[in-house]
Amino acid sequence: MDENNIKNIKNDKFAALVGIKLLQVGDGYALTQMEVSEKHLNGINFVQGGAIFTLADYAFAAAANAKGLMTVGITNNISFIKPPKGKIITAEAREASCSRKLCVYNVDVFDDDKELIAQMSAMGYIKNK
């Protein structure tokens, strides 16, 4: 695990702004969490899809960059399965494959009841070694 990349991941200003915490990170793996507040709700009082996407994307970024390879997202696809229950949502990213320049991650997002609320598939471009 590259300490400089971990520092960069933890320095993500947007993640901090929306209240995302990095709970665990390792090579090809990350666990992130966000406490839902009023600022995360849409007009019908569900967690806004962009907030869920941001949590999942941050988990992907942490997992992909933990190896010490600067990786940037090039495509993400998210499916929203159901609205979350409770006040905490958690995203878990796991590497599905990695080649010299491309990596793919699967990210599952859960609510307080450990119910699956969203799934993301993310592809990254590995910029350097």
What does this structure look like?
This protein has helices at 3-10, 13-18, 49-65; strands spanning 20-26, 29-35, 71-80, 88-98, 102-110, 116-126. Strand 1 (20-26) and strand 2 form a beta hairpin. 33% of the residues are buried. It has a six-stranded antiparallel β-sheet. It has a single domain (3-126), classed as Thiol Ester Dehydrase, Chain A. 24% of the residues lie in helices and 43% in strands. It contains three helices and six strands; from the N terminus they run H-H-E-E-H-E-E-E-E. It is an alpha+beta fold. It comes from Dehalobacterium formicoaceticum. Keywords: Hydrolase. Pfam families: 4HBT. InterPro entries: Acyl-CoA_thioesterase_PaaI, HotDog_dom_sf, PAAI_dom, Thioestr_dom.
